[in-house]
Structures are given as C-alpha cells and as structure tokens.
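Need the bound structure for heme C, inputs here:
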Amino acid sequence: MKLPRLDNVLKAVGALALVGAIVAAAVPLLGLVSITASSGHWAITDVVLHGAMRRAVATQSLGIEPPPLSDIAMIAEGAGHFEIGCAPCHGRPGAAPPPIPEGMTPPPPYLPPRIEEWKPRELFFIVKHGVKFTGMPAWAAQRRDDEVWSVVAFLLALPELDPESYLQLAYGELADSAPALTGFPGGISRDATGAEPAAPDAGAALPAEAAVCARCHGIDGRGRGLGAFPRLAGFPGEYLHATLESYASGIRDSGIMEPVAASLDAESMRRVAAYYAEQPAAGAAPAEPAAPPAARREDEGPLALGRRIATEGFALRGVAPCAYCHGPDPVARNPLFPDLAGQPQRYLARQLEQWTRGGGRGGTEYAEVMYEAARRLEPDEIDAVAQYYASLPTQP
Ligand code: HEC
Ligand code: HEC
Ligand code: HEC
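Answer from helper R.:
Posting the output first, comments after.
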C-alpha cells in the first residue's frame, strides 16, 4: 500500500484545524453561545465545572495553615458579617436562599449541609478569592486574612446553629426584631417562619441607620462584651465620622466595615457618629484583668511589660510612650487620637499588626504617625501592650 506523503497529511490536518477554528470563532461571533442563566447548565457541565472548582480549591489552598478557629469572638464577627455579606445569596439557618439569587447559574447553595465537605483552608480560599464565573465574590479587603478566618470560624459553627441561635449571634439584643431575609433590597421574603420584615424597635433614641451598627457594636456602643467588636461609646464624633469615611473609601481596610460604611449617605454618617459619641463610655467592664501596679523588670509578665511600653516606651528603639497620645491620663488630647482603654485585646493587636505589614493600616489624617510606633514592636510586645490597654477601665 502506498502511504500518503507527509506534506499532504500535514496539509489535510492544517485544513481541518482551520475549519475548526473558523467554526469555533463563528459560534460566538454569530451570537450562538448560550449565556442565559435561565437555561441552567447541562448536568454534565455542572459536574465538570463543580469538579474542576473542587480540584482547584483543594490544590491551590495547599500550604494554608489555619489559626485556632473556636474563639467565640471570631464566630460572632463572622456571623455579623454573614448576615450582610452572604445570607442575601446563600440564605441563613431556617431560611432558604431568597428567590432572586436562586435564578443565578449556578445558584448559590444553602450552606449548612455543604460545610463538612470542605477543609478549613479550602473554605478560607473560597471566601478570600471567590469563584470566577459563578457570582461568588472575593473578600473586599484582600489584606485582611484575619477577617476571612473569622468567617471560616463561623462557617464551621454554622451546621450546628438553629435559627434562634443564629439570630442571637448575628443580631445580639436585636434578635427578636431581626427582619426576615429578603435577599436584595425590595426582594420577596422567603423566611421559613413566614414572618414579615419587622422594623427594628430598640429604643427611640437609636437612629434608624444605627440599628445595623447595634447588631455588632450594641445599642449602648460597648461592643456586646464578646471581645469581637470595638467599643464606639464615648468616642469623639469627629473620630467616629472620620473613621467611617476612611472605611467607606477603602483607605482603612476592612471587608466587614467597608460595605456598612459605604452604604451610609453623608447625613446618616453624621447621625450615627453623633449617636455613639453621646453614649456613656464609663462603667463598661474592662475586657481583661487589671495590670499589677508595679512589677520589677525581671518578673515582668505581659501586663507589666505592656504598661511599661505604654508609659515609658523604648527610647533606644525610638518607640515613644503610647500614653503620650492614647492615655491613660486626664490630659485633653487631639480628638483624632483614639482612646484605647477597655477595647478588646484581639481588636487592638489586630490593628497594630496591620501597621507592621506592607501598605499598613489607613485611617484618619493622622494614621501615618502609627507606622513608626507599631513597626518597632515585636509580636509579643504587641500582645502585651494590647493586653494592658484592654485591662484599663474606660474613663467618662
Ligand atoms: C452574589 C451572591 C453570593 C454572595 C454574596 C456570596 N456567595 Fe458564596 N457562592 C455563590 C455562588 C453562586 C456559589 C456557587 C459556586 C459553585 O458552585 O462553583 C457560591 C459558593 C460558595 C461556597 C462553596 C459551596 C459549595 O459547597 O460549593 C461557599 C463556602 C460560599 N459560597 C461561602 C460564601 C460566604 C461565606 C459568603 C459571604 C462572605 C458568600 N459565599 C457570599 C454566590 C454568592
Ligand atoms: C457585621 C458587624 C458590624 C456592623 C454591622 C458594624 N460594625 Fe463597625 N466594626 C465591626 C468590626 C469587626 C470592626 C473592626 C474592624 C477593623 O478591624 O478595622 C468595626 C470597627 C468600627 C469602627 C472603628 C473603631 C475604632 O476604634 O477605630 C467604627 C467607628 C465603627 N465600626 C462604626 C460602625 C457604625 C457606625 C456602624 C453602623 C453604621 C457599624 N460600625 C456597623 C463590625 C461591625
Ligand atoms: C504621636 C501620637 C501617637 C503615639 C505616640 C502612638 N499612637 Fe497609636 N494612634 C495614634 C493615632 C493618631 C491613631 C488613629 C489612627 C487612625 O486614624 O485610625 C492611633 C491608633 C492606634 C490604634 C488603633 C485604635 C483603634 O481604635 O482602632 C492602636 C491599637 C494604637 N494606636 C496603639 C498604639 C500603641 C501601642 C502605641 C505605643 C507603642 C501608640 N499607639 C503610640 C497616635 C499615636
């Protein structure tokens, strides 16, 4: 048998490839690709895409080390955000995903039965990076891995939560007036209880816009005592307002506060800042036990070390005493220098850690001054000084 000549074979293959390429280009150019979400995926496409997503997540999350994830502060922080940032698509315990996101392809799944299929590092990867071509969004503040881990801590607790304990976590004292899940604003409620959206009813003095803040920070602005949310009560209105602006514009990184602050118009921002500035700060229980009054250098525990950093600093390393700008003392300071007394240790330490990283933590117009202070502290010194300030009672 005579074999075809090699150059003829190559020509034939080339011609076929050309026809293939023309057809492949013509299908989208003629508008023939199915892009309708209403048609869903074929079952086989679904299996292939979801399988590819699972494999990608498993491989690309290798090497991510989870921190401890059972802290109630992390779970509560994650729950507070889930209600705003996830439940409108995924539903919440007792309430299936609302109808509008259900029309997406693929539709966002109801999460409680799904969690056990994923490792914590995989959940971290999904929540931090989102999933392309599905509508699952990436975390708004890519440098805040600590916030993403709080969401993971919450997701791990989610399968065990009944509707009441979920609302308690996400709404605190406002749990009874929690609105039914409507998905996107104006959506139709599909709450399992069939309840109508309720108007928050939490004391006449609370401006309507502050009801959302009170879920996490408390009606009294003291942070709900969970170690998760900072106190706002008694801060100068200028600091609260300038801080909200810096979250809204993304200058201060937070995937939790940015969407909340960005949803406020100028007048609402002014009103919530004024409301929390008026709440009394004094009397809030300190978050940690008090520091011993004086400790010798050789038996310095973290609280005493923290006190020393705050009141004396490290002259040789160029760390000024924190107290110079943050107290504790009765000296009137610039209203944009925040009071640290009684704030949760975890919150304070996480703020300091952000300044030690590239890019740092933005904030008000004076935030720059913190770079030098924070960058020269060792990790154990950050924990110690955070613990010291957390132990101080709040001043009137
Ligand atoms: C705009 C709608 C939308 C929002 C908001 C959203 N998701 Fe998703 N999410 C999706 C969609 C769609 C998928 C399906 C992706 C797929 O099947 O590949 C998904 C998938 C997931 C998965 C994987 C589930 C599985 O088993 O396949 C997890 C976990 C998840 N989302 C968590 C979250 C968390 C936590 C938040 C909030 C921080 C969130 N999502 C916000 C739409 C959304
Ligand atoms: C989902 C929970 C949640 C909601 C709702 C929420 N916050 Fe926050 N808030 C947080 C968390 C968590 C932080 C810490 C963020 C960080 O690490 O920067 C924070 C930080 C802040 C800070 C910075 C405090 C400081 O000492 O610098 C201010 C101010 C603030 N929130 C005001 C508000 C206001 C006003 C509202 C309502 C419009 C609100 N928050 C709603 C969780 C929430
Ligand atoms: C020269 C003044 C100054 C000194 C000294 C200083 N700070 Fe600050 N600090 C600030 C200012 C201003 C802010 C507000 C940043 C912003 O705009 O969000 C701040 C913010 C902070 C915050 C975040 C508070 C919050 O509510 O989010 C922490 C924590 C903090 N400082 C700790 C320290 C520690 C610890 C030291 C000492 C090692 C120190 N600071 C020294 C001026 C100072």
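Comments: The radius of gyration is 26 Å. Residues 185-204 have pLDDT under 50 and may be disordered.
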